[in-house]
Amino acid sequence: QRLMHAAEKTSTNHAAANLPTERNLRGVVRALILEGRSKLAGKFRADFNMSERHFYWVKASALALKHDWNALDMFAGEKRPPIGYLPFVELCQQHGAH
Question: Is the per-residue pLDDT at 95 higher than 80?
């Protein structure tokens, strides 16, 4: 409940009215990424002190699940990932990227 209340309070855009109904931070961040709302997911990460390493895992998994290979490639190349590059390769293999 704290998560949803804070989300409604901190987000002033129309996306706040349509927040995922997940009860944990990981689920909310994952759902937002799957919906294509990565900026809002990043805001949740910062507001709720999700570690960068955890955020990278959640975002990379969600993008692989979504088969958004271009976004996953761009995300891996933004800076040196705190989880390393191998998890990106493994996620691509698990989700059928060629």
Answer: yes
Residue recorded with tokens 């933004």: 78
- What is the pTM (predicted TM-score) of this model? 0.80
61 CB neighbour count, 10 Å cutoff = 19
Determine the Cα–Cα distance for residues 19 and 22; give it in Å rounded to an integer: 9
DSSP state of 23: S
CB 19 within 8 A of CB 4: yes
Q: What is the pLDDT of residue 12?
A: 47
CA 57, distance to chain mean position in Å, is 8
Give the number of residues written for the chain: 98
Residues 6+ apart with CB under 8 A from 39: none
